[in-house]
Write a structure and sequence with these properties.
Blueprint: E1 3-8, E2 18-24, E3 28-35, H1 43-57, H2 68-87, E4 100-106, E5 111-117, E6 121-125, E7 129-131, H3 138-145, H4 150-154, E8 175-180, E9 186-191, H5 193-196, H6 201-208, H7 214-227, E10 234-241
Antiparallel strand pairs: 1-10, 2-3, 3-4, 4-5, 5-8, 6-7, 6-9, 9-10
Helix pairs in contact: 1-2, 6-7
Length: 242
Amino acid sequence: MNYKINTNIGVVREENQDRATVIDNNIGTLALLCDGMGGHFGGSLAASITINTFSHEMESLPNDKKHIFEWFKNVIKQCKNNMITEAGNDAMKKDMGTTVTAAIIYKNTKDIFIFNIGDSRTYIFDGLLHQITVDHNLMNYYIIEENMSEFQAAKLPGAAALTSALGPNKKTNIEAFTIDYSNEKRTIILTSDGIHDYITKPNFEMIVSGSGNLSEKTDQLINQAIRGESTDNLTIIMLEVE
């Protein structure tokens, strides 16, 4: 499976708290991106613990896709337990947190399973760019729960504040999606908000549909977001599925 992981510290942050990996075994492939929560002590630690826990637990990926949602939920629970153990009695570490977005492709099915916690995103490109995940933030909470318009909700103070994250003391909501990729080629794209918040969808789509290879496209997306005055770390996974 052809893929590229690209990450950049950006032009503002002193540390890159993003983490990303692609793990392949004889059952399936996992693409996983975590954005350690900026402004919180241990954001990079929370992201690293999540990556390491999933890397270990991929050995137990169920053969039957019917059990994939339960498996993912249990691994997230293990991530949280590992963070609690790491934090111990350290109050600052207990505030650690990370977003999680993931795509799992089974080798014997035509399904892509996508999971989301927070405001990192997973997209599918099939000639057009489709955002699959929905950001877990106050803006979308008011749009979904209070029937506000996007224009109204975006103007609320703290509209980008997360309503879900993974951490010892964080409220964690897991959202799941299933995509049928049939026999056509698909590109799965995972991004941290340092990219997708600073690039327009038309520019995003134009770069992904261009003629370059995955390495060139990920470089272009990061550079475009930096030109768009990104103030965050920037991380992207692009993975081609046939």
